[in-house]
Design brief:
Blueprint lengths: L1 H13 L14 H19 L4 H18 L5 H9 L4 H34 L1
């Protein structure tokens, strides 16, 4: 599964040695938020086999959002490059803080899909 391999690779990269902090974050806020969520789901996919599939899907969703907003750019590499500018402490704080927001965004999307889908079933 290609997405699983990407998620596991990103998770491994996040847990690598401490990285230099960026002097300034040039990312647009929407991109940064999506990269935070992609990182969160990558860690989730790589931390427990029970969450591998859902973590990979979450990561793929957020990478897809980045691709839609930034066509023609390799968003996996772009995300890795941005993550490398963060210290290990920054990464852990970011991932912890992103959890509720990212989870709620996916829950809202899922609820909307169910609601819209049920209108076709009945």
């Amino acid at each position: 599964m290609k997405h699983t391999a990407l998620a596991l690779a990103l998770a491994a990269g996040l847990m690598a040695s401490p990285m230099a902090a960026a002097a300034q974050d040039p990312l647009p806020a929407a991109d940064r938020k999506d990269m935070e969520c992609a990182a969160l789901f990558a860690v989730m996919a790589g931390s427990d086999p029970q969450y591998e599939a859902s973590g990979a899907l979450g990561m793929a969703y957020y990478i897809g959002r980045l691709e839609g907003r930034n066509p023609g750019q390799d968003q996996v590499t772009r995300t890795f490059d941005w993550l490398k500018t963060q210290s290990e402490e920054q990464l852990m704080t970011m991932i912890e803080a992103a959890g509720p927001r990212c989870g709620q965004e996916l829950q809202d999307l899922g609820n909307n899909m169910i609601q819209v889908g049920s209108s076709f079933a009945g």
